[in-house]
Amino acid sequence: MNALALNAAAADAANMQIRPVSAAIGAEVIGVDLSQPLSDADFKRIEAAWYEGLILLFRGQQLDEAQQVAFCQRFGTLAGVLNKHTGGGKHPSVMYISNIRENGQLIGALPDGEMYFHSDQCYVEQPAMATMLYAMEIPKAGGDTLFANMYKAYDTLPADLKTRLAGLTAENVYDYDAAGTTRGSKIKEGVKHFAHPVFRTHPGTGRKALYANRLMTDHIVGMPLEESNDILNFLFDHAEKSEFVYTHQWTVGDLILWDNRCSLHARSDFDASERRKLRRITVLGEKPY
Ligand code: SIN
After folding, report:
1. Given this model, what pLDDT does residue 241 score?
2. Residue 209 above 50 pLDDT?
3. How far apart are the CA of 257 and the centre of ligand 1, in A?
4. Closest Cα partner for 257 from 240, 277, 284, 280?
5. Atom of ligand 1 nearest to the CA of 143
6. pLDDT bucket at 15, cuts 50 / 70 / 90
7. In angstroms, what is the span from residue 119 Cα to ligand 1's centroid?
8. Does the CB atom of residue 260 touch ligand 1 within 6 A?
9. Distance separating alpha carbons of residues 96 and 12, to the nearest angstrom
10. Which of 171, 161, 175 is nearest to 230 (CA)?
């Protein structure tokens, strides 16, 4: 780091402020330029705010791929891109989310429309613990990302349901070709799926979180299908209650880091004729327990 960069980093540290973005979930970190290396002390503060807030928002960032990779790597080993569709970056852990087409080809993955609430990669043995999205092109309206607090969802469940589901697992599935899961249907050959605890424990905070979601959770293992469907429908409606949710309307230069172990996210619809492009990197997590 040259002297100018050192000075900028030191100034950032002195200016760093953290404030909540909503009563439900999320904190905004102000006064940090993520294109500059962070000291260990600043990183620890950011990590502590992340554990507390579940998602972190940094506005007004100007980051190239390498700078975003460098910041993301502070949180752990980067995960690979599981989506077999287009949208990879130069770095193997970078994926672009975009509806933009060049010469008739999509330049990114997860292109169009609404997405139900989900937790990234919950259908593999070691799902991503964190996902980082950086906004590069954003429609005038819609295409918001919604975040839901799964600690609060767990804490407010009826006690008898907590007892009924304690120790149970649910099968999570994601069919990229169908862009979702049709619950109760037979899992197609080659489609990734994995059973994880319905309630998981966050290794950093020791807190329990609800770990089931409308887009990817198929059934509760070992439970009659009708009962499983009733309970899952209840859990999804509960998890998505407005008091647990923050809706983020993106501005170019926003960067959000979310914790997949204790939050869900979803996307609102947007006009397909408008351009949307975000750069996504994920951090490998542990096997949920
Ligand atoms: C995602 O679910 O990872 C995509 C979120 C978004 O496009 O806002």
Report:
1. 98
2. yes
3. 12
4. 280
5. 8
6. confident
7. 10
8. no
9. 28
10. 161
**How far does CA 181 lie from the centroid of its chain?**
18
Atom of ligand 1 nearest to the CA of 144: 8
277 lines ligand 1 (CB under 6 A): no
This prediction has a pTM of 0.92
- H-state helical runs in the chain: 3-15, 40-53, 65-73, 150-155, 159-165, 225-239
How far apart are the C-alpha atoms of 193 and 178, rounded to whole Å? 14
pLDDT digits over 58-68, tens only?
Answer: 999 999 999 99
pLDDT for 8: 45
| Residue nearest atom 3 of ligand 1, based on CA coordinates | 120
Distance CA 180, CA 185 (A): 12
- What backbone torsions phi and psi does residue 240 show, to the nearest 5 degrees? -95, 10
Pocket test for ligand 1, best of 98, 116, 267 (most atoms within 8 A of CB): 267
* Residue 110, ligand 1, Cβ within 6 A: yes
Average pLDDT, stretch 260-288? 97
CA 253 to chain centre: 18
Which ligand 1 atom is at minimum distance from the Cα of 120? 3
Reduce the DSSP state of residue 87 to 3 states and report it. Answer: coil
Greatest distance between any 2 Cα atoms in the chain: 65
Mean pLDDT across the stretch 138-151? 97
Which has the closest alpha carbon to 60: 24, 12, 14?
12
- Looking at ligand 1, which atom is closest to the CA of residue 266? 2
CA 186 to chain centre: 27
- What does each C-alpha distance from 130 to 190, 249, 268, 280 come to in angstroms? 25, 20, 21, 10
